[in-house]
User: What shape does this take?
Amino acid sequence: MSTIERVTLPDPRYEFGGDDHVFVELDEAMSFDANFEAMAITQQLRKKDIDGIFEICPANASYMVRFEPETIDPHTVVETLKSVAEETDLSEYQWDTRIVDFPVLYEDEWTHETLMRFRDNHQDPDATDLEYSAQLNGFDSVDEFIDAHAGAPHMVTMVGFVPGLPWCFQMVPKDEQIEVPKYVQPRTDTPSRAVGYGGAFTAIYPVQGAGGYQLYGRTPLEVLDTDQNLADFAESMVFPQPGDILDFRRIDRTEYDEIREQIEAGTYEYTIESVSFSPEEFFADPHGYNEMLTEVLRG
Amino acid sequence: MITVSRPGVLSTVQDLGRFGQYHIGMPPSGAMDPFAHRVGNYLVGNDEDAATIEMTYQGGAFEFDEDRVVALCGATMAATIDDEPINMWEAVSVEAGQTLDIQYASNGARSYLAVAGGIDVEPLMDSRSTYTLIGLGGYEGRSLEEGDELALGAPPEGATDRIGSAVDDEYIPDYDSIDSIRVVFGLCDYRLTDACKERMTTEPWTVTPDADRVGYRLEGPELEFVEREQPFGAGTDQSNVVDLGYPVGSIQVPQQPIVLMQDAVTGGGYATVGTVISVDRGYLAQKRTHQELYFESVNVDDAVAARKAQQETLAAIRKSLE
Amino acid sequence: MSTEHTITAPMPGVFYRQSDPTDDPFVEVGDDVSKGETVCLVGVMKNFHDVTSDADGTVSEILVENEDAIDVGDALIVLETEE
Assistant: This one.
């Protein structure tokens, strides 16, 4: 049975960002250990509601806070973060999160048109982004590669860049993880809702704009709804939250169009189930744990 | 109400910003030079967080349909009310039917038009600031256009008593003479060689024409990274790191540096090597394209002291206007 | 009687004589321009802004090279105008 190899994190680096931020690097490399640590510490910080700290931002293998130095001295912030880190023990930690069905139309016409337009910016001008990524990661075909990408759920390990953009890290052992470079020269254009990949992360572009990730497909779902028309955006205009588990599901054009119609009519409801996530159980048997998670979703 | 008869290059409604949402990718937005914004509001008797109009490089022309006290603070912009010149950093009266016409910026890059009562757009997440990248907040999420009609809040009591009161010269920044921008180096500056870090503080940087509310792209000495085998997940370029959060004011180095400003992208995969201190973000925002500046390395305690000193100045200005 | 009129930069940025490298310049020396006509562009903050003539006249001199850096108030184009 394959397990997630545990990573012993180095001593965290506490760095001042001017007079009003502290940035904490837990590791230079990505790992579930680093991310779960960032998630656990920032969740605890939020609960403590410390006077003067007004932004708490978990990231992939780091986290950051912003504060008012008039209310809390920067050195006190660092001491506080250190003590919260000391109190946080991943082995006893679990959190409530949600698993979400995330349909994706792989090899869609829109991202295909875009990536062909920017071939000169790419490592391999003669292949598509999917062909290049499949080959680089040792897959025999694009289909097999897509099956792997959609074959196990992905955890949202960070949200940002612009509102609503999730970075997702696939919940598989390291030797099964996809890794690809970003474009040599970023594109000046990417369709909204494009599903891209860079480093070890899937990203979903909330709006049309520049981008440097390899393009694989397009989801009919929104990650940002500024007018909050859709029911699942009632609380926030941004859908993904750090810790969410997204289950990418390969769909065809007919289903894509059906979902888009409902999204545009404001009637679509995301398929979401609440789950309690246990890092320990996931580390011990990721494939079994993922199966249990997706079963909850697919009922 | 005021009507925009000429918008200028980039004029947006801003207050002190939108907070608590950085973790979902929402930057604060808000005035790029909060000092000038605040002083403008003091002059007309507003709360310091009342929305003003931030004008970049070029002023706009605004027609008033009611009497209001206004103040123009920030970069030097010649301004007239129905062709009569007015002073900046002073509470001035505009009467119904008159047009306030503001010209281009000479000393600095941005000016703030404060109006007694504030610009009354619908707040979004407790802020009236405009975030144009996504089209949120402010006036329809965009920069002002000809014909836009801006509602005004109820003027504060005694606003008209303030007409003629002005900020003392000693408090008015001479933006073009400030060419040293203080930075707390750190974050991921281990990615740069020592020689490169040294060059960052000794050689001049030039503001590029791309510099905007998202980031100030600078041009200067070539950067040099410490060669390494890239860690898992970072991407292959030497400038790449595992995607992380970017502090507001942080300097990211995709090659040539970009200092992230009020409409910052909140995170990403380029190494960050330091952070412009909060006070100097306002001074940097007053740099025009092609102007030169130097980075000066300071520590966090210096940065806090500079912030405290500026707050004392603001308190003194406020007191002098009472 | 003809006099000189100078069109100045209304903002800092990069001076462009045409909207696309393959297009003809907006104006050449000797061209007649009328008030309100676009004579060049300034690129700044990732956008291009039209600079329009503030007088009727004939272009007698173009003082800035294409893609040069300009600051607010810089003299760009000289017109000969009829009084």
Q: What stands out?
A: Chain A has a mean pLDDT of 95. Chain A touches chain B through 58 residues (CB under 8 Å). The two ends of chain A are 25 Å apart (CA to CA).
